[in-house]
Automatic annotation (TrEMBL):
Family: Belongs to the ABC transporter superfamily. ABCF family. YbiT subfamily.
Entry keyword annotation includes Repeat: yes
Entry keyword annotation includes Secreted: no
Residues covered by the ABC transporter domain: 2-260, 328-541
InterPro entries according to UniProt: AAA+_ATPase, ABC_tran_Xtn, ABC_transporter-like_ATP-bd, ABC_transporter-like_CS, ABCF_ATPase, P-loop_NTPase
Keywords associated with the record: ATP-binding, Nucleotide-binding, Repeat
Span list, region Disordered: 540-567
Organism: Microbacter margulisiae
Any one GO molecular-function label of the UniProt entry: ATP hydrolysis activity
Name assigned to this protein: Probable ATP-binding protein YbiT
Polar residues: bias regions: 545-554
Length: 650
């Protein structure tokens, strides 16, 4: 379909890619992964034709269409949301207009036998067939469906684009690209401006769309749910795995372990052979054997270990000064912008040491409440910070506020005070800005590198209340894991505004859901909250209109009337996970057996060894048995799932 051939990219003596080649097939959903600065965005830009490599080329057919969503591309102008979105169908509208004009011309002509008349007929037939080919159904309805899936309400459709924030305008651009249905979608961090519900909608869309997808994302769950192939960029080379992201992680680790073992075994063989040669080189009786060993070494294909990028973020928050028992109390808080009510009569209490998550659709007041806590905006009602509370704040747009003309070192040196100034080099090194990297200008840093630089500010003085607004945007997956561990180990209180399910999983023990001007408390982790939300939505469909008020929704707490339901759901999840774990173990065994059978087939072709054939037959029997077990367990899992659904319906 589309191929990258010997791509090399160099910047001022630094090689970003070194002769990489791969093919993108029609049904591929490729997760492009690698550390910040590895070149993921550059590769997408080259595929989109917006950047040229130093050498090499992208080869594609002339009729292949490509849709590209970069990290920073905002539609502007005075069009409404719907008008801007429907511009994705510009080609369809132009063809329809052309057909209308041809129809009008034909209706006025009487020379039905002329060549000109037949030429017009052929032209209209061709245009009509092409229109049917590229347009499927009602494009206006498609635009509505896509906008709704990405979080827009019908009331938003007639609002002007320039009334919306940058994040919402990015959603409009994403909607336009999806509606064009290109043969290859290139998406650079598409989830950065989406809430959890919109991310789940996009997952479903990408999984079911017919074209190929190549995407960069640091949302582990999103990658895993969408990808069927993973390409890792590391130190100028690629490692290509035709599996989803989580399977790639496992296979890559196994590959490196096997490579290390094979390398160590070969090194021992080389050492033993060289010792034999050295020991018997001067003995005439061993001359033939010595020469044989020398030839053996010369023919030996040396195993080379993959070069590993071992640079790693080292993050640990300073010890938190002790605060009061209740770092934050809010009662009857209301916040309006002009006449629009964002938050109405909300209340919440956060205790010392808690790690809580603020979740909900964009525009529902999460960042607004953070600004209220920071004293950056006024409000009515009570908002009380506890005794000795010291806040460390990471804003959503923190990375974009950096001065692009300063170096990394200058950026931190300008804000550091006291003894910390003597430790700037050490801190920069811990954040992978050691050596020459500290002299880089901010403007040449990738999005993830800028986020890491902005994160350093939090380490410059001890705090006991961390407020992190979308801290994982642009951070690579290893850096996110380190940040998550650091927050877990932090002995203060943390409020995390995030849409990243994997990041919040096991980190937040309490979830505050923002919506309909209210904030609801859920005493659970993020995945329990999401499961609860799905059940709650089904229950809301059965309620009468009088009982759908947000104030009537009860929070599930230990000891409430829902305890029995909670226990049943917990047991269901336990049984389901057990079945899934058994399936994964069998799949792993099947994969191992298939690899062993393949190796034996190669050996049998080279050397007809009877013992090898017996082992081959045994492995085939084991594989058949494991396949039968897998089929039976798959049926059991389906029956178990259907049975649980039937119980819920009753």
């Amino acid at each position: 379909m589309i191929s990258a051939e010997q791509l090399t990219v160099e910047f001022g003596g630094f090689t970003l890619f070194d002769s990489i080649s791969f093919l993108v097939n029609p049904k591929d959903r490729i997760a492009l992964v690698g550390k910040n600065g590895a070149g993921k965005t550059t590769l997408l830009s080259i595929f989109a034709g917006e950047q040229n490599p130093t050498s090499g080329r992208i080869v594609k057919s002339p009729d292949i269409t490509i849709g590209y969503l970069p990290q920073h591309l905002l539609p502007a102008g005075r069009l409404t949301v719907m008008e801007e979105t429907e511009s994705a169908f510009r080609e369809i509208l132009q063809i329809q207009q052309s057909i209308d004009q041809l129809t009008a011309q034909l209706s006025q002509r009487t020379d039905h036998q002329s060549d000109e008349y037949h030429r017009l007929i052929e032209q209209m037939t061709h245009q009509t067939e092409y229109l049917h080919l590229i347009s499927e159904g009602n494009y206006h309805a498609e635009a509505e469906k896509t906008l709704t899936g990405l979080g827009f309400s019908r009331a938003d459709f007639d609002r002007r684009v320039d009334e919306f924030s940058g994040g919402w305008r990015m959603r409009i651009e994403l909607a336009k690209i999806l509606l064009r249905k290109p043969d290859l979608l290139l998406l650079d961090e598409p989830t950065n401006h989406l809430d959890i519900e919109s991310i789940q909608w996009l997952e479903n869309f990408l999984t079911n769309q017919s074209g190929a997808v190549m995407l960069v994302s640091h949302d582990r769950a999103f990658l895993d749910n969408v990808s069927n192939r993973t390409i890792e960029l590391s130190l100028g080379h690629i490692h290509d795995f035709r599996v989803s992201y989580s399977k790639y992680v496992t296979l890559r680790r196994e590959q490196l372990e096997q490579q290390q073992r094979a390398y160590e075994n070969q090194q021992k063989l080389i050492q033993d052979t060289e010792q034999f040669i050295e020991r018997f080189r001067s003995k005439a009786t061993k001359a033939v054997q010595v020469q044989s060993r020398i030839k053996q070494l010369a023919r030996l294909e040396r195993i080379e270990l993959d070069e590993i990028d071992s640079s790693r973020l080292n993050l640990k928050f300073p010890p938190a000064p002790r605060s009061g028992t209740l770092p934050l109390e809010i009662e009857h808080l209301t916040k309006t912008y002009d006449t629009k009510v964002i938050l109405k009569d909300i209340g919440l209490t956060i205790r010392r040491g808690e790690k809580v998550a603020f979740v909900g659709k964009n525009g529902e007041g999460k960042t607004t409440l953070v600004k209220c806590i920071m004293g950056e905006t006024d409000h009515s009602g009570l908002l009380r910070l506890g005794h000795n509370v010291k806040i460390g704040y990471f804003a959503q747009n923190q990375a974009s506020l950096l001065d692009e003309n300063k170096t990394v070192f200058q950026t931190i040196d300008d804000v550091a005070v006291g003894d910390i100034r003597t430790k700037i080099r050490d801190i920069l090194g811990a954040f992978m800005f050691g050596g020459e990297a500290s002299e880089k200008k901010v403007k040449v840093l990738s999005g993830g590198e800028r986020s890491r630089l902005a994160m350093i500010r939090l380490l410059l003085e001890p705090v006991n209340l961390l407020i992190l607004d979308e801290p994982t945007n642009h951070l690579d997956i290893p850096s996110k894991d380190v940040l998550k561990s650091a927050i877990k180990a932090f002995d203060g209180t943390a409020i995390i505004v995030s849409h990243d399910r994997e990041f919040l999983d096991g980190l937040a023990t309490k979830v505050y859901e923002f919506g309909q001007q209210k904030v609801r408390e859920h005493l659970s982790g993020i995945y329990d909250f999401l499961r609860h939300k799905k059940m709650e939505s089904l229950q809301e469909l059965e309620r009468t209109p009088a009982s759908t008020s947000p104030t009537t929704i009860k929070i599930s707490k230990p000891g409430s009337d829902t305890k029995q339901e909670y226990s049943a759901r917990k047991e269901y999840n336990r049984q389901l996970k057990k079945l899934e774990r058994q399936l994964e173990e069998i799949e792993s065994t099947i994969d191992r057996l298939e690899k062993e059978i393949t190796l034996l087939e190669i050996a049998l072709n080279e050397d007809n060894d009877p013992s090898a054939f017996e082992e081959y037959q045994q492995l085939q029997q084991q594989l058949a048995a494991e396949m039968e077990r897998w089929e039976q367990l798959s049926v059991d899992k389906e029956r178990f799932h259907n049975g649980a659904e039937s119980d819920n319906e009753r």
